[in-house]
Amino acid sequence: MGKYSVYLHKLYWNINEQGILGSFRKLLYGFWRELFHGSEHLFYLDLSHIPDKELHIPHNVQIDTFIKKEDIPEQIMDSLKDFVRKKGMKEEFEEYYLEKILNLYKHGAAMYVAKVDNKPAAYLWSITDKGNYTPYFSFFTLVPEDALLFGGVTLPPYRGKGLVPMLIRHGAYCSKKNGKKRVYATCKTWNISSFRCIVKAGLKEITIARGVRVFGKRIAIWPKIGKRNQWTDTTI
């Protein structure tokens, strides 16, 4: 599927949802937000500070881990399809966006799924040095002792229940269990909800940086670290 056909169809369903004027405003806002607030918060957690025992979760919440695409049950797959589906989206484009998510497995990623009363409610991904997937982490190369937690999302009916912070803590526990020493996470400076989730999970902010692409190479611009961004350890 060509990228231009994807862009055109995306424009079509945006117009279908928000109208021409609304779609144009959304496009301009996206450019403005990326230009002036496209930097990212970088977070860190020393895994020696988290307990060796598994973290407590509420009785009606279950967290499953999937390290292979083939292991994902139909219920979870249907939930992912609902997540990518937009009004007016053709099935072939739904499959395209679903496959983009599932392609993370090709880079060695793992997916954590929180279920509430046995229904999928929130998602989080982790990746290690074997899958240093630059669209999600472009600041430096991960080493074997590192893990990255990213892509946290809560489905609308379950927002406000602290599920993503719970998944981040669970991902940190699993990373330690698998021999990792550090976990990292990032979020855009405009993404206040993600910032709060990561901080609530116990990670500390190192700095604010920005990844840019120059002549096909991706580099990171590091500002001077201020007082609020000092590299400090934490407990979880």
Annotate the secondary structure layout.
Elements: H1 3-37, E1 40-46, E2 61-66, H2 74-84, H3 91-102, E3 110-116, E4 119-128, E5 146-154, H4 163-177, E6 182-188, H5 192-201, E7 204-214, E8 217-221
Parallel strand pairs: 5-6
Antiparallel strand pairs: 1-6, 1-7, 2-3, 3-4, 4-5, 7-8
Helix pairs in contact: 4-5
Folded structure, characterized:
- The protein is an alpha+beta fold.
- It is built from 5 helices and 8 strands.
- A hairpin with a 2-residue loop joins strand 7 (204-214) and strand 8.
- The radius of gyration is 19 Å and the shape is globular.
- The N and C termini lie far apart (44 Å).
Provide a compact summary of the structure.
The protein is an alpha+beta fold and 236 residues long. It contains five helices and eight strands, in the order αββααβββαβαββ.
